Amino acid sequence: MEAAAASLSGSNIFHRNYRFSRSINRRRYIASGSRYFSNSDLNTQNHSVFKGPNLSNVQIQKRNLRLQMNCALGVCTFPENVMESHHSHIVEEKLGVLLLNLGGPETLNDVQPFLYNLFADPDIIRLPRLLRFLQRPLAKLISVLRAPKSKEGYAAIGGGSPLRKITDEQADALRMALEAKNIRANVYVGMRYWFPFTEEAIEQFSISTTGSSIRVLQRIFKEDAYLSRLPVSVILSWYQRQGYINSMADLIEKELGKFAKPEEVMIFFSAHGVPVSYVEEAGDPYKDQMEECIYLIMQELKARGIGNDHTLAYQSRVGPVQWLKPYTDEVLVEIGQKGVKSLLAVPISFVSEHIETLEEIDMEYKHLALESGIKNWGRVPALGCNSLFITDLADAVVEALPSAKALSASTENDEEAEYDPLRYLVKMFFGSILAFLLLLTPKVVLAFRNSLF
Ligand SMILES: C=CC1=C(C)c2cc3[nH]c(cc4nc(cc5[nH]c(cc1n2)c(C)c5CCC(=O)O)C(CCC(=O)O)=C4C)c(C)c3C=C
Ligand SMILES: [Fe+2]
C-alpha cells in the first residue's frame, strides 16, 4: 500500500494492455485517462480538499492511497460543463458522481484476468522497488495458480460476481435519491479490477455531455490538462456517518429478531482482512476504522436497548503473509468450542453481496460454525440499495459539494504510462522465469500450498 501514484499507474497500464491491446487508439485514450482516473489517483488528488494541517504531501498521498482500500464504495463529484467553476456555481450545475468499487469477474472466464488485474496492482502485492519488474509476471503466475480455487467459489455463487449489477443498482438508487433532493446528477460506476473500469467511466462521463462541452471536455481530456481543472470532491470514508451506522444497526436488529432468544446471540462482525504489513509498516488506518465503525454500531444498538456480546474478526486472507488477526475461521471454531450456541454473522466493510459474503460466509464459515458447536446461525445481508444507506450517500454528496476544488496537476511518473510492447515482452519473459524460480523455493511452495490453493 505504500506505492506512490507513479507505481499505481502500473496496474492501470495492464488494464490497457490486457483488454485493449488490439486497439492502439483506444489504448492511448485509456492510457491518458488511467493516469488520472484510477480510483486511487482520485483519492490521492483529493488531498487538496481533505488534507489535515500537519501532514506533508507525501504522507497525505500515502494515507489517501490506503484509504482507497477502506472505501468499498467511493464517491466523487464533478460539476459538468464547468471550466472555470466557482463554488457558488456548483449546486446549480449538473453533477457527475462516480462510485468506486473493486469489481468482480462476471463469468468464470473472467476470473483469471480479473485476478491478474488484482495482483498486478502494487497496492495489493507490494514488491520492493528493485523487484517491481516482477510485478506482472508474478501477477500472471499467481493469478493462474489461484484461478481454479477462485473459480470454484464463483461457480458456487452462480458462475460470477453480482457486484457489477448491485453497484449499478446502487448508482441508480443514488441518482434517484439525489433527484429527490432536486439535484440532477449522472451517476457512474468505476471499478478498479474489472469492467466497467474507472477509466471507462470517465470516458462515458465526458461522452455523455453534449455540444461544445463534449468537444471541450474531450480535447482537454486528451491533453490531460482538463482533469486538473475539474472541481472534484472525494468522499473518502463514510463508515462513521450516522446514516450508515443506523442502517447497519437496523439490519442487525431485524436479524436478531429472527432468533428464538435474541439476547443470547453473539454478534460476529467479519471484515475483509488486509496483510498486517499494510497496517504496521504502511500505516493503513483500515484496522482503526473498522474498530471505530463497530464501536459506533454497538453504541447505536445499546441506545436501542440491545447489549449483545460482539466480536470482530477478519476474513478472506490470501497468500503466504500474515493478515490482520484474529482470523474469522479460527474465532468461529474457538467460540463454538467455548459454548456459544447462537451467532449472527455481520459482514462489515462490504456494501454489496459478493463472493466473500455469498460463498465464504454463507457456505464455508456457516459450515465451520455448525461443525464447531454453534446451533443457530444467522447472517445480516449486505446493504445493497438499502434506502437509508443510499439517502445517506446522497447527503454525503450534497455535503461534499462546497469543498469541490480543481485538481492539481499530476506528478505521476510518465515513464510507466508509455507502453512499449518490446520492453513489456522482455520484462514478462525474464520476470516469468524469475517468478517461477522464486515460487520453487521450498518455503514459498509450502506457504502457497497452504494458503493460496
Ligand atoms: C474491504 C474490501 C476489500 C479488501 C480490503 C480487499 C483486500 C484484498 N483482496 C485480496 C485478494 C482477492 N480479492 C478478491 C475479490 C474481492 N475482494 C474484494 C474486496 C476487498 N479486497 C471484493 C469486493 C472482491 C470481488 C468480490 C466478487 O464478488 O467478485 C479475490 C478473488 C476472489 C477469491 O479468490 O477469493 C482475491 C484473490 C487481497 C490479496 C487483498 C489485500 C489487500
Ligand atoms: Fe479482495
Structure description:
With 453 residues, this protein is of the alpha/beta class. The chain folds into 2 domains: 5-238 and 390-442, Rossmann fold, CATH 3.40.50; 242-383, 3-Layer(aba) Sandwich (Rossmann fold). It contains 20 helices and 9 strands. The chain has helices spanning 5-20, 24-37, 39-45, 47-50, 57-70, 87-90, 111-119, 135-156, 163-179, 198-207, 211-223, 242-256, 276-280, 286-303, 328-337, 355-371, 387-400, 414-417, 421-440, 442-451, and strands at residues 74-79, 95-101, 185-191, 231-235, 266-272, 310-315, 342-348, 376-379, 405-406. The strands form 2 sheets. Strands 3-2-1-4-9 form a 5-stranded mixed sheet, sandwiched between helices. α2 packs across α10 and α15 runs parallel beside α16. The longest helix is centred in the first third of the chain and has 22 residues, at 135-156. The site of ligand L6N33NVT has 19 residues, from α7 and α8.
